[in-house]
Amino acid sequence: MANGEPEAKRAKTGPGTMDALSFISDICGTLKRLKRTGWVMRKVPLPESDSDHMHRCAMCAMLLTQPADPRDDYTTPGMEKFHPDKVDKMRLLRMAVSHDLCEALAGDITPYCNPTLVASKHEKEREAMQAIRKVVGDPLGEELYELWAEYEDLKTVEAIYCKDIDKFEMVVQAFEYEKEHLRPLKDVPGNKAPLSDSVCAEKDLPTVCDEPLRRFFISTNKAIVTPLFRRLDQELRARREALLKERGWGVTDPERQQPRA
């Protein structure tokens, strides 16, 4: 955490003990205040917090409790394992609502942060989860750590679903910020609407009012694996393209969903 060591990290807990108040107030409270880095970089007014993000991720996970949608193809080789009937829905829900818990201590590090910080991201997050485990106490602390490690390894169906949900929720939020804040192209002074596929340096990023949030769609255009969330992602991108067109903006091919290799 940037502004000093939280009380939770200083809590005196022994093996098997639980400092529940520090967990709820210091750690979970930090997540309610921690604004997501990507939105801060683009100067989004009143950007969402980590808690906001994880709450909707949990709502996305609950979609798996519905019967499989006939529009989603689970018969393609490799996709059978993602059928809702084969998913541990409670484990997925618990993973979705806790997958960014480490950021309460490690911070929200994106691929566009300082390269040194990015290089140490996994280790910082692992240390954060170890610290949180000590505060929470086992068995809950052990479960939270294992859920985080499983999510990072991306080897189970539930972890892959959770990663898809994490990416999908981000592009949903990007679309909503564009819908709320992006001005029509004609109202942006001096904007000639260059459709660049490149990713700007952090210092060059325009505000969400003056340029679409292209980076978020480009970086996720091949990311989503599971049939349900690939379909929802495609539907979302179609809505976004119609919105941008209505406001005079264009969409580049790399912002559209691309086939996975």
TrEMBL record:
GO cellular component: cytoplasm
Keywords of this entry: Hydrolase, Metal-binding
Pfam families linked to this entry: HD_3
Endpoints of the signal sequence: none
Chaperone in keyword set: no
Domain of life: Eukaryota
Domain HD intervals: 28-184
Record-linked InterPro entries: HD_domain, YfbR/HDDC2
GO MF annotations in UniProt: 5'-deoxynucleotidase activity; metal ion binding
Protein's recorded name: Hddc2 protein
Source organism: Symbiodinium pilosum
